Amino acid sequence: MNDRPNYITPQGYARLRAEYDALFAVERPRLVETISWAAGNGDRSENGDYIYGRKRLREIDRTLNRLSKKMKAAKVVDPARQEDRGRVFFGATITIVDEDDREKILTLVGDDEADAGKGLVGWNAPIARALRGAGVGDVRRVELPAGPREYEILTISYPTN
């Protein structure tokens, strides 16, 4: 498997757990009940409830398996407990500026939590790897698909307890 730790915030882990619990404790049992009812109705070859139910059950089981593996491999790290708040580490919210004076606010989170539209960047994304360990005022070069860019760190903050 992967040698890198699968870091995740407590909130990200809670979301994975909630999704797992909802599928396992609510949706799956309801679906099994529907499949049992549909199986009792006779010919299964043309029974839409039975056919769709079995297909959906396989999808749920695959999702449960995937979520279980993610939770087992997860290393929960609380950014609020970061001792060195002057450098960019996991969970940092940073403001960066590029060569064209465009500012961006990013938060470095676990790869399973990444959402670029919300400014949540996965810990192993190229920009996150380039910014790790940087302090305010440091300039880091990032190799992006569109070409190299340089970013200066303007601010670094971490959540408080």
TrEMBL record:
<keyword id="KW-0805">Transcription regulation</keyword>
<dbReference type="GO" id="GO:0003746">
    <property type="term" value="F:translation elongation factor activity"/>
</dbReference>
<dbReference type="Pfam" id="PF01272">
    <property type="entry name" value="GreA_GreB"/>
</dbReference>
<keyword id="KW-0804">Transcription</keyword>
<feature type="domain" description="Transcription elongation factor GreA/GreB N-terminal">
    <location>
        <begin position="6"/>
        <end position="76"/>
    </location>
</feature>
<protein>
    <recommendedName>
        <fullName>Transcription elongation factor GreB</fullName>
    </recommendedName>
</protein>
<dbReference type="GO" id="GO:0006354">
    <property type="term" value="P:DNA-templated transcription elongation"/>
</dbReference>
<dbReference type="InterPro" id="IPR036953">
    <property type="entry name" value="GreA/GreB_C_sf"/>
</dbReference>
<dbReference type="GO" id="GO:0003677">
    <property type="term" value="F:DNA binding"/>
</dbReference>
<dbReference type="GO" id="GO:0032784">
    <property type="term" value="P:regulation of DNA-templated transcription elongation"/>
</dbReference>
<comment type="similarity">
    <text>Belongs to the GreA/GreB family. GreB subfamily.</text>
</comment>
<keyword id="KW-0238">DNA-binding</keyword>
<keyword id="KW-0648">Protein biosynthesis</keyword>
<comment type="function">
    <text>Necessary for efficient RNA polymerase transcription elongation past template-encoded arresting sites. The arresting sites in DNA have the property of trapping a certain fraction of elongating RNA polymerases that pass through, resulting in locked ternary complexes. Cleavage of the nascent transcript by cleavage factors such as GreA or GreB allows the resumption of elongation from the new 3'terminus. GreB releases sequences of up to 9 nucleotides in length.</text>
</comment>
<dbReference type="InterPro" id="IPR028624">
    <property type="entry name" value="Tscrpt_elong_fac_GreA/B"/>
</dbReference>
<dbReference type="InterPro" id="IPR023459">
    <property type="entry name" value="Tscrpt_elong_fac_GreA/B_fam"/>
</dbReference>
<dbReference type="GO" id="GO:0070063">
    <property type="term" value="F:RNA polymerase binding"/>
</dbReference>
<dbReference type="InterPro" id="IPR001437">
    <property type="entry name" value="Tscrpt_elong_fac_GreA/B_C"/>
</dbReference>
<dbReference type="InterPro" id="IPR036805">
    <property type="entry name" value="Tscrpt_elong_fac_GreA/B_N_sf"/>
</dbReference>
<dbReference type="InterPro" id="IPR022691">
    <property type="entry name" value="Tscrpt_elong_fac_GreA/B_N"/>
</dbReference>
<keyword id="KW-0251">Elongation factor</keyword>
<feature type="domain" description="Transcription elongation factor GreA/GreB C-terminal">
    <location>
        <begin position="85"/>
        <end position="158"/>
    </location>
</feature>
<dbReference type="InterPro" id="IPR006358">
    <property type="entry name" value="Tscrpt_elong_fac_GreB"/>
</dbReference>
<dbReference type="Pfam" id="PF03449">
    <property type="entry name" value="GreA_GreB_N"/>
</dbReference>
